[in-house]
Amino acid sequence: MRAHTWQAETVESVIAEVPGNDDVAGRGDDPPRVRSGIGGYALAAVATAALLPTAFSPSMFSLTFTPKFAVLLVVAAVGAVPLVCLARSSHITWAARAGIAFLVVGLISVLLSPSVDTGFFGLYDWGTAWLFWFGCAGAFAIGAKLKPEELTWAFGGIVVGAAINALTAIYQVGTHPSGALVLYQGGQADGMLGNPIHLEAILLGALALIAGRASTGANRRMWWPIVLILSASLELTLERAALPIMLVIMAASLVVYGLRRAAPFAVLTMVGYAASYVSGGSGLGARVTSGTSSTTYGTRLHIWHLALESLVHRPLVGVGPGEVLSAIAPHVSASFAAHLGVGTLPADSHDFLVEVLATTGILGFLAFLAWLGGAALKARGPFLACAVAILSVELIEPLNVGVTPVAFLALGAATVSLSGQSVGLAAFRWSGFGSAVAEASPAAVGDSTSRRSLSSGEDDVGSGPTTRVRPTRYGALVTAVLLVASLLLGSTMLAGDYYQYVSYKDVQPQAKIAAGKNANFLLPYWAQSAAAVAEGYLWASDFDSGGTAAVEHALNWYVTASQRDPADPTLAGEIGSLELQLGNRGAAQRENLHALQLDPWTYVALLGLGTIAMKDHDYNTSLYWYEQALKVSPADNDLKKLIASDKTHLAAT
Questions:
Q1: Which residue pairs, CB below 8 angstroms and at least 24 apart, start in 279-282?
Q2: Is the Cβ–Cβ distance between 463 and 148 less than 8 Å?
Q3: Same domain, residue pair 96 and 200
Q4: Measuring CA to CA, which residue among 330, 300, 306 is closest to residue 567?
Q5: For the chain, what is the domain count?
Q6: pLDDT (tens digit per residue) in 127-185
């Protein structure tokens, strides 16, 4: 008998005691269990968990982002009313209220931001703005509204979503396909998530979730192949954070479930990871040795510092959700711009806490902490482990529309109590200690909450503190309206992104322009749809070397794109280039200087200012701007030739 063991009810029973699951000890003398059909929240939970990580379409301009964002809109619509119900009266009342407060602060920040479009929808291909957080809150509410017997559906959805991505990763590395599933940067598996870091997060979350199933219960062996698949594909991402987090999951399993029970899980996890490491040619080792503290973590520290500088100007509500670019770009140094590369700026802070603080300010940050902290105090078990594993990755990596909401769904599900069991901190009782704490805490047992729910007319589920407020007819109407709106908006996103894909692929100028205009009509809030039309006109101008009408049209469309995303310095630089092409040197100079206000090291703007000065035969000024541009792109041989030409002219005068 192990000394200082966790009580069996603390972790695995959250899943194992759900009707239809294996008993932890495999006993056959348990009373009959009641099975129930899948309810609305269970259906929403399994769809959310399975579809968000796997929504993917090769017919989209953005293969992964737009399909996932369309799904997230539906999640937000379904979870909105449940979130309000939870805030009225539930086992997580104050956490739900804090979540709503965070959304309110975020909405105020959107309305006060320079770009309402960006603050509401987010940057194209990122989308981590207000609607994103609305979707996370909806996923959290769906998870928290589950009945105990419905937790299995959320569990299954997360495992299915992760397993599909894991198998896709193995297929990618095994076959090296071209097209939509091509390996990320030529060597890293990214599954159906578009980036290995997001695949890493969802795999770690699933591994933490199934650790108990693979360690205990009569059917634990059936989970062992899934453990091998998840751990093997985890190594194929070649991400550095995967191994230490995986080791923490293994160590926690050995402590919680016991050495004898959890040893097979730990061994199989290492076997799967090691097998991929060996068969994959030690790709991870090459990435670790090639990376340095400066390039890997120094970059992140610098991004965090730049993102938080914006708090000086807007401390209460931040720069606006999803608008980290506007906070970072004005403060970028020449060396950091050169390190990032020409035309590259961080669109995400690579830390969800820094992201929230910079974009929603102190008020939003406090509400966010209250939301997560209030839920964490009530959370427990494998679902909590899943949420922690995913969010641990997002402490050093970007948020993602297909992964982050899954973590919030798991966090909500982790607050659901089973059969009068205690929840939160009171549930984690060390053997021989803490029983008095559990008995003394009203939040730890269902009696007080049950009495309160009966006296207030609420719908008690008879499973501890998971109190349910019956949806009213108004709530059903609101859900229906939001659902219709989300489906319409999501459909237009998918159709618009399809036309953007056609515009990119088509080589016929008029067809390219027509597809771009369709994309712009359906996606009037993203700059990229207007830019697609502009690029179509520029493509047409290549076929008509004597005319300027196409260039003028392109200029007008780039102006539209810049109005939608006024913080993007590249768009201002493109406008300056077209103005110069049309012979409008004064307008070109103004646009290029405006681009440098947004980002002092915008390469196209520096180059444009140098070209304007050179055309005016002002070689001193031209040399200055070209040398500034060379700091950003030190290997640009064409730029070096321009600098040499300026020096020759100056030497001759």
A1: 280/173, 280/235, 280/236
A2: yes
A3: yes
A4: 330
A5: 2
A6: 999 999 999 999 999 999 999 999 999 999 999 999 999 999 999 999 999 999 999 98
AA letter at 44:
A
* Residue of 234, 169, 117, 193 whose CA lies nearest to 398: 193
- 184: β partners: 188
The residue type of 206 is A
Angle at the Cα of 447 from the Cα atoms of 94 and 89, rounded to 5 degrees = 25
* pLDDT, position 295: 58
- From the list 510, 589, 508, the residue with the least C-alpha distance to 550 is 510
Angle (nearest 5°) at CA 337 between 334 and 342: 125
Q: Which residues contact 548 (CB under 8 A, 6 or more apart)?
A: 541, 582
- Asked if residue 270 and residue 138 are part of one domain, the reply reads yes
Model confidence at 370: pLDDT above 80: yes
Distance between CA 425 and CA 307 in Å, rounded?
A: 34
Count other C-beta atoms under 10 Å from residue 101's C-beta: 18
Instruction: Find how far residue 201's CA is from the centre of its chain.
Output: 10
Global pTM value: 0.87
How many residues in total does the chain contain? 653
Domain boundary among 397, 416, 435: 416
pLDDT tens figures, 212-260:
999 998 889 999 999 999 999 999 999 989 999 999 999 999 999 999 9
- Segment holding 467, helix H or strand E: strand 467-468
Residues 314, 343: Cα–Cα separation, whole Å: 26
